[in-house]
Predict the 3D structure of the following.
Amino acid sequence: MSEITVTVAGAARRVPADTTAGELLQGEGGPDRSTVAARINGELRDLAAVVSAGDVVEAVPVDSADGRSILRHSTAHVMAQAVQDLFPGTLLGIGPPIENGFYYDFAPHHPFAPDDLARIEKRMFEIVKEDQIFKRRVVSDEDARVELADEPFKLELIGLKGGTADDESVEVGGSELTIYDNIRRDGTLAWKDLCRGPHIPSTRAIPALKLMRSAAAYWRGSEKNPQLQRIYGTAWESRDALKAYLAMLVEAEKRDHRKLGLELDLFSFPDELGSGLAVFHPKGGVIRKEMEDYSRAKHLAAGYEFVNTPHITKGKLYEISGHLDWYSDGMYPPMELDGGTNYYLKPMNCPMHILIYRARGRSYRELPLRMFEFGTVYRYEKSGVIHGLTRVRGMTQDDAHIFTTIDDMRDELRKLLTFVLDLLRDFGLEDFYLELSTKNPDKFVGDDAVWETATATLAEVAAESGLELVPDPGGAAFYGPKISVQARDAIGRTWQMSTIQVDFNLPERFELEYQGADGERHRPVMIHRALFGSIERFFAVLTEHYAGAFPPWLAPVQAVGIPITDTHVPYLDGPVGEALRAAGVRFEVDDSDDRMQKKIRNAQKQKVPFMLIAGDDDVAAGAVSFRYRDGTQKNGVAIADAVAEIRDAIERRVQV
RNA sequence: GCCGGUGUGGCGCAAUCUGGCAGCGCACCCGACUUGUAAUCGGGAGGUUAGGGGUUCAAUUCCCCUCGCCGGCUCCA
């Protein structure tokens, strides 16, 4: 047998010509189950792949991003096998890995019931125990069509070979068509699937799995196609990793703003109002007011002018803007008034701000002109998409439109990004990345040169921020490119927060102009931006980020006075309360009939930042005793010091 | 909008599968207790079981329709 030279983990090695990646990686992490695949010359391959002369081979550990994807993709195969075992005749869709798990789409005779998931999962564990080998086999299109004659969805995929859509790439994304056979220990074929791979060596290499839920999903992601039944599952490199993931989900559920909104009495969605229409209760109202006050102050300092516009308008406005053509489905139907004029609830503020711009002639000396408004808009979101405060039908945007010359655009965008990030940081979000959405070649207005300038400017400004920049090709709205700021919250989830969007279209449609230094009329560029997105949505994100334990400056009640007995109520209401209220602290005394311990429990459950306890000792000393949210305490603090400490935490906007 | 699930005092749940007096805890109201860091004791009030229709001697329970909510999909100017 001839020998070849390959590079393994950075070192050259001589090995027999028919060596597999798996054999090569023995002692480099294999053959124990911590290596699930190989990276050969940068490409992910099965451990069973035979290496060639000159190959550079690395191990893909199961606990790496690629390793988990391969594990999960393989687990999806196991699930599909289990489903077809238990429900013969069920057709296969696709089954890719996704963040934190995988799914597989099926066309079953009946939708899966919750009990079915338990049965499928049980069967999956049996398949794992059977230690079936994943074996790759290259097939011709013709052979594949014969083999998969009973799988119409798979046949459709064969026709798409080489397609680029992500969800198809796991099936047929490569240059050649492959089928993976699942082979039992006795050599018989257990199951097979059209698949690009790679896969883990055997089903035994799945250390931990769990099925999560079933749901419907449209075939190939289009509403026009039939709906398939999707089962979501997850798989991890160890039982502990699975446990940690499930614990994270429990934590996320505890932080759910809908649950906290009820527990902390922040807001509700009365049935009488209709879906997606929130009312803010007094405690939610305080938080909201603090958010707004702070935002206003920052905008004032940054040179914005405050405008105000109505909630309804004649349809004419949205005819000019074009929204009635493109988005009327998302608008509440019109109110027809006398004379047959249609009035609409506004789904956006921009055309109204444009009218303010256009109210008189504008000079280049006025630009950039920055108009800000807390503008309440109404959108007829489809019934199935409404979700707490994050997706509503009535919301208030912290909306601004900046009218600028093309020359000033760069400077303005740079300032804007800094402004956005500073504001988000003030609200306690620290961890960001940016997304740059660029032109969709099939759907855009405006000329290429301007698009390129704007896109390049956005990219440049984004790069200057030093933040990670993720491209989103084709993701722009038809009227201009945008940057969106994504923030990671306290438990690592990402939320799209602010958007900064360049618009070439509306200035055109409304024929906006300014007179330049050259005496000629020019068209301004418009920048749309919302920092909170909507107050409602930002409120939800903050609630989940802080798990309801808002920092003092936002907390509805900043300090609660807890008397040891009734006799200490006048002290807390009097000298203590007066000093705190004079300092602007939101302070309440719990003078209910409950015992002191119960009062502490209640304040703790309400996540009040500071509890001020007073008994005989404190009264005698002119002091209070602090109890903080984490249960620590500090006794005998003089009233003035207590006020100063609380005041300081509020002013510095710190978390306690 | 689509698929599936679900709906019982303000909140969390039981009784529903297998039809037979709607129950518990918290919150609320009244009374007693006056206590140093996460639930004091006793009493009371509160429900047309989301709404409508059907089957039945009898419906919270079974069936149908509508609405809301939940999980996804599609959508998100």
In short: Residues 163-168 of chain A have pLDDT under 50 and may be disordered. The longest strand of chain A covers residues 208-218. Residues 584 and 647 of chain A are 8 Å apart (CA to CA). The two ends of chain A are 70 Å apart (CA to CA).
